[in-house]
Specification:
This is Membrane associated serine protease, rhomboid family. The chain has two domains: about 55 residues, no CATH class; about 220 residues, Up-down Bundle (Rhomboid-like fold), CATH 1.20.1540. Helix content is about 55%, strand content about 0%. It has a two-stranded antiparallel sheet with strand order 1-2.
């Protein structure tokens, strides 16, 4: 049974509207128009006027193009894929996630791996996809647009980018820790982080979570049952993105920046530490 939400100033009035700045429930009498949504009278009085700068639910700035960075991420992935078609498998081997390559009779001598100092792979691998077929890229980019664009709008650009890249690092850490012997590529680990963040957002806003939970379960089943799919990367990205989103969306207002960026920094350190330990074990 859903809990009844009432205006914070008028407990006898039910409402489905919340202040876009502090998230308090407000009735029509307590709404003050903002450039995006409505603000409560407390937020307006704190700013000393009838208009305050609109913010996302996570405290980010409202951008003129709320989907710009999602478009840029998609463009970068497409650009790398075009380069793959032009250069061939060499690019995927040089940029993909690999702990340590093998050298010896009959073995490839491409690149080396993270164990040989190529730490850029923990991020560049998230921009490489299978070729020549565009199916892998197409599926990931559609998911990035459907899931990522709304999150960028709701979190703000800086927080969205932090979520994406920290999720990608968490995905790489899980792969290095669990399956260090396989070459892993694709943006799906970071996208699973966005899935987790979407679930946290819907919980935070008290929306019906059944659609996103069903979609997430289907993707997890796909990850564990299909061949050549890195369930390790998907799970690592999901866990990392979920934790980062909890820090961003449930941070207390008076310490919002500290909690949000502290959570991102903590998960960044954990991801790199797990990666370093995994690589050290492979080297030894």
């Amino acid at each position: 049974m859903d809990q009844t939400v009432c205006c914070y100033r008028h407990p006898d009035r039910e409402t489905g509207i919340r202040c876009t700045r502090c998230d308090k429930p407000i009735c029509p009498e307590c709404m003050v128009n903002a450039s995006v949504g409505f603000h409560c009278k407390d937020c307006v009085s704190q700013q000393g006027g009838t208009h305050v700068q609109a913010r996302t639910i996570a405290g980010g700035s409202i951008a003129a193009d709320p989907f710009l960075f999602t478009k840029i991420l998609i463009g970068l992935n497409v650009l790398v894929f075009v380069l793959e078609l032009a250069i061939g498998d060499r690019l995927a081997l040089d940029l993909g996630l690999y702990a340590k390559c093998s050298h010896g009779p009959g073995t490839p001598t491409f690149g080396c791996g993270v164990a040989d100092g190529e730490w850029y792979r923990v991020l560049t691998s998230a921009f490489v996809h299978n070729q020549p077929s565009p199916v892998h890229l197409l599926f990931n980019m559609l998911s990035l647009w459907w899931i990522g664009a709304p999150l960028e709008q709701r979190l703000g650009r800086a927080r969205y980018l932090a979520l994406y890249f920290v999720s990608a690092l968490g995905s790489s850490a899980a792969v290095l820790a669990i399956a260090p012997g396989s070459l892993t590529i694709g943006a799906s680990g970071a996208i699973f982080g966005l899935f987790g963040a979407t679930a946290v957002y819907m919980r935070r806003m008290r929306y019906d979570m059944r659609p996103v939970v069903a979609l997430l379960v289907l993707n997890l089943v796909f990850s564990f049952t299909w061949a050549n799919v890195s369930w390790q990367g998907h799970l690592g990205g999901l866990v990392t993105g979920t934790i980062v989103a909890i820090g961003m969306l449930y941070a207390p207002r008076n310490r919002r920046d500290l909690v949000q960026w502290g959570t991102c920094a903590a998960m960044l350190v954990v991801s790199l530490a797990v990666s370093a330990i995994a690589v050290a074990q492979v080297t030894s």
